[in-house]
Design a protein that fits this description.
The complex is a heterodimer of chains A (518) and B (120).
Chain A: H1 3-19, H2 33-42, H3 44-59, H4 67-89, E1 94-96, E2 101-103, H5 105-131, H6 139-160, H7 164-182, H8 189-220, H9 225-232, H10 240-257, H11 265-272, H12 275-300, H13 305-327, H14 333-354, H15 356-384, H16 400-403, H17 405-419, H18 425-439, H19 443-468, H20 482-500, H21 502-512
Helix pairs in contact in A: 3-4, 3-6, 4-5, 4-6, 5-6, 5-12, 5-15, 5-20, 6-7, 6-12, 7-8, 7-12, 8-9, 8-10, 8-11, 10-12, 11-12, 11-14, 12-14, 12-15, 13-14, 13-19, 14-15, 14-18, 14-19, 15-17, 15-18, 15-20, 15-21, 17-19, 17-20, 18-19, 18-20, 20-21
Chain B: H1 6-29, H2 36-39, H3 59-112
Classes of the chains: A mainly alpha (518), B mainly alpha (120).
């Protein structure tokens, strides 16, 4: 009895290996050292980040008087190293790990956005934890930076993977790290609540995503995106199972992006999480999730477009509408920005509807601009908000122009950019997206988008009014330190540069676009 | 295609039958003498508090369970690795050390944080 099951399992394994065309190994026992070292080299940035996270974790165990700056420094150093390596690898597009992992211009560009978002988050975290007296429990800092690096790593894996399983591994690595980071204020009830809500809904959405993936595996017999594309071209697109699989996978990813009607976790989680993590959440996971959506639905599996295009159009319009209108009645700045991020997600989804190279380029540009302006406005929120338990009422901004004209100007730039007013990056992000839409003949959608962004502009302008018209509510002494100055400077320059020299950035994006678009 | 899975179903059938058989035979053969002490759920020798069905477990079990995963995963990979080590050569040897180092980082962290201390 003992030999029979063993033999049959081997037989089953062999048939599975045989059916996945890309993974055929004639000689399993021999190790191909050249292929492995090529794979290791191609995934060098990821390995650097893993080492960085482990070092940060180990260093956090050694008591050190200036532990927080030390750990932040290590994190930033490792991210810069990884960015350098990514930059070097960008000229050598290659696949690694038996076709599961891809290094190309597209993934490199998105990784740069992820590095940028994480670096800025790391830089502004020190101020936040200092403000909230969390620095005294120094031991937690190491976990914080290690988790941030692991979340970054998850995002990097997501943007580089060309295999459903690897995409899922990256997604979960990122999600699990962020669940913990959301609940990082252990004594704050709202932080705990946010973390719990995020875990439950995140697990739910992961389950839906996995179900969609498993259906795809059943239909195509492979999890490799190239293999799937080849298998799908022989399938009937009206097959209800295929429709179901596509929609499940889409829903799972839209959950992560926070599109309506899968947005209900966004405001609560954004409000409860520590402010740097809120900034991080609205930038890095969103970029990574959009990378996966683009990779799946616009590149490798673009053949599925007839299935999702109508749903996507509906969801995009709905997302913009709900995001813009509900933000109008928010009194907490973080909640308001949560709805604003929902509205921006709707805009980004319109890029998918537009499709083609223009649509994709406009999404990539939008993600970059969004990173700059969102991180910038959150840096100001961190500076203004002294006490974590008080929440973040928009009245914090009252009379900022009188006390701190410099910060007021920066807030003005970020808010103008979020609203899409020139000469900031936000304007051109929306402009190119709308241009791509009109090019593809979606004029009605473009008109709806313009009208809704006019609605959205109102709540940004409401804050600008508070800053410039209202008298100061209370005397707040704002202490700037070097890292947060750097964050504000980078974010301001980024927001302005993308607005003043959009063509330069677009050229950069066009160069990084992968060949063979669907 | 479904015929490929026939061995799996056979396996399931054998397992179910065997389990049912063992339980029935032991039911017939053993002496039946339950008393309260014996009916208590066994929890590593610690006296239980309240009902287990109320969902109240000591949180330390959770930490131990997570630590167990570290070693479990390690062993899971070590067994097949040991079987083919001769073919893998020096490269495979070093690679496994890298893997163990990664787990070691987690283990050291847990150790220094005091996850191995059992607080009563």
């Amino acid at each position: 009895m003992s030999t029979t099951p063993a033999n049959t399992t081997t037989a089953i394994e062999l048939t599975t290996i045989g059916s996945t065309a890309d993974l055929v190994n004639t000689d399993i026992t021999r190790i191909d050292t050249a292929a492995i070292s090529q794979s290791v080299l191609a995934s060098g940035p990821e390995i650097i980040i893993i080492i960085g996270a482990c070092v940060a974790l180990m260093l956090s165990l050694v008591p050190h008087p200036r532990q927080d700056p030390l750990l932040a420094g290590v994190s930033v150093f490792m991210i810069v190293l990884a960015a350098g390596m990514s930059y070097g690898l960008a000229d050598y597009p290659q696949t690694a790990y038996a076709g599961m992992f891809m290094v190309d211009g597209f993934s490199t560009y998105l990784k740069m956005i992820l590095y940028l978002g994480t670096t800025l988050t790391v830089l502004m975290s020190g101020r936040y934890f200092h403000n909230n007296r969390l620095g005294k429990e120094g031991v937690f800092q190491g976990e914080y930076y290690a988790l941030l690096l692991f979340a970054l790593l998850g995002g990097m894996i997501m943007v580089s993977s060309t295999d459903l399983l690897l995409i899922y591994v990256g997604l979960e690595l990122q999600a699990l790290s962020i669940y913990v980071l959301t609940g990082f204020l252990k004594t704050d009830v709202r932080s705990n609540e946010a973390s719990l809500k995020y875990i439950i809904l995140g697990a739910f959405s992961s389950a839906i995503l996995l179900y969609g993936m498993s259906l795809f595996y059943g239909l195509t017999g492979t999890t490799n995106l190239n293999g799937m594309a080849a298998a799908l071209s022989t399938l009937d697109l009206s097959d209800p199972m295929l429709v179901l699989a596509t929609l499940f996978m889409l829903v799972g990813l839209l959950f992560k992006v926070g599109a309506v009607p899968f947005h209900m976790w966004v405001p609560d989680v954004y409000e409860g999480a520590p402010s740097p993590i809120t900034a991080y959440m609205s930038v890095v996971p969103k970029t990574a999730a959009f990378a996966v959506i683009i990779r799946l639905f616009m590149q490798d599996l673009s053949i599925l477009q007839p299935i999702w295009i109508l749903n996507m159009t509906g969801i995009a319009v709905l997302t913009m509408t709900v995001g813009s209108f509900v933000a109008l009645v928010q009194h907490n700045i973080k909640r308001m920005l949560a709805y604003s991020s929902i509205a921006h997600a709707g805009f980004l989804l319109l890029g998918l509807v537009a499709g083609g190279e223009n649509g994709m380029a406009s999404i990539l540009f939008y993600l970059l601009v969004y990173t700059f302006m969102t991180v910038g406005i959150f840096a100001i929120i961190i500076l203004l908000n002294k006490d974590v338990t008080a929440g973040a009422p928009i009245e914090d901004f009252s009379g900022l122009a009188k006390n701190h004209p410099g910060l007021a100007i920066m807030s003005l730039i970020f808010l103008f950019s979020l609203a899409g007013i020139p000469p900031t990056g936000g304007f051109f992000a929306k402009f190119y997206l709308l241009a791509a839409l009109i090019d593809e003949g979606h004029v009605v959608l473009a008109v709806i988008a313009v009208l809704l962004s006019a609605v959205a502009a109102w709540f940004y302008i409401r804050i600008i009014m508070l800053i410039y018209v209202q008298p100061p509510a209370q005397q707040t002494d704002i202490q700037l330190n070097l890292p947060i100055r750097a964050v504000l400077l980078i974010a301001t320059i980024g927001t302005l540069m993308t607005g003043l020299l959009p063509a330069w950035f677009l050229d950069f994006i066009a160069n990084s676009m992968p060949l063979g678009l669907g | 295609m479904p015929i490929d899975f026939l061995p799996v179903f056979l396996m399931v059938a054998v397992v179910v039958t065997l389990a049912a058989f063992i339980l029935t035979v032991s039911r017939l053969l053993r002496t039946d003498n339950p008393y309260p002490e014996k009916n208590r759920p066994y929890e590593c020798g610690i006296d239980h508090v309240g009902e287990a069905s109320a969902g109240l477990f000591k949180v330390q079990y959770f930490v131990i369970a997570i630590l167990f995963v570290v070693f479990d995963v390690e062993t899971m990979f070590l067994f097949p690795w040991a079987m083919v080590l001769a073919d893998l050569g020096l490269f495979g040897y070093i690679e496994m050390f890298i893997f163990i180092m990664m787990l070691l980082v987690g283990f050291i962290y847990a150790w220094i944080k005091g996850a191995l201390e059992w607080e009563v």
